[in-house]
Design brief:
mainly alpha
Length: 183
Amino acid sequence: YLLAKETAVGHVISTKRMKQKLNQKPAASGFSNTEQTIIREAKSKSAMQFLAEIKKTKHATITRGERQCLQELANLGLLDEVINVILLLTFNKVDSANLNEKYALKVANDFSYQEVASAEEAVLRIRERNQQPSKKANQTATSKNNVPDWSNPDYKNETSAEKRAELEEQKRKLLAKLDQGGD
């Protein structure tokens, strides 16, 4: 009964959330103090309470759209602790008093697909996600520049004598052709 009550969505029993809660693995260590605080706070409150606290710090009220978003997140089968981590991530990503609902749903869909069942797992996924863009940034930094080599101030012309003679001959022929009237 307590499990059903704890995982219910809008006073309706959610079997998916019950399974998630039952399949939770014990907490793994290796989290920073900040991450441990996030996990502890995420586990201690319902999603609505957590959102209310965040909104209170931003001197704002919960909108109808945000309530619906929380309902949709819960309908995906995510536990409140995972939803709370998603809320925190979303508010930290965008400096706004309002929840970026599209981003929250995107992250929630990813977590639902990956079967994230605990706040610890959610924090680990976010940590992985934050490390991926740095790899992409390194790859784009090494991309080829479209500026020709000869425009570089340090460029040294290393054309061989044979190649220079060939180019001079080609230049002479083209100039002669031009002097004769074209084609």
